[in-house]
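User: I'm new to structure prediction. If I give you an amino acid sequence, what do you actually give back? Let's try with this one:
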Amino acid sequence: MSIRHGLLALLERGPRYGSQLRTEFESRTGSTWPLNVGQVYTTLSRLERDGMIVQEGADDVGHDLYAITEDGRTELRTWFETPVDRTNPPRDELAIKLAMAVGAPGVDIRDVIQSQRHHTLKAMQDYTRLKAQALADVPANRDEVAWLLVVEQLIFQAEAEARWLDHCESRLVRLAEAAATEPSAEPGPAATRGAARALAGRTRSRR
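Assistant: Good question. You get back a string of structure tokens that encode the predicted 3D arrangement of the chain. For your 207 residues, that looks like this:
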């Protein structure tokens, strides 16, 4: 998430002070990614150092105001026009957890999957409820429209995660069945074969 560019986008609408930017950022994103004032002012200092913003006086109660520069507008336009890079995806804790759970001693990977699926489905229900609340009335301003887009992205993301967990479980079951029926031709690393054998035993015991 680019706090830097988010603040530039807000400053393009006019000069603002730090805590005001924090409030507007959270309002626009429905507090999905909360900021603290320290993060905001650290980012503002870097933007000012890089020539993207300048201090522009103060408001009536003494808050220092920041304004975007032409370099800042150029940076912002470039950000909007450039696709988000997916060639180097961020580390995903769930994917790492399942990868490490395969063949881990004393770990039932199906229990790991089931626990995560329960959490993911609950989160999806919560997001869907928030969306229904947002749609109870027609979005009245840009902040409400922006929040609706954010919550819908969270719903789609949770749906995709739930489907992936189903896929992981199905793949493990297929590997388990293959390991149980063809022990002499077990493919893959030893850890995967061990997990498959254990899963095969649990699968048979649950039938």
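You can read the tokens as a compact description of the fold. Here is one thing that stands out. The radius of gyration is 24 Å.
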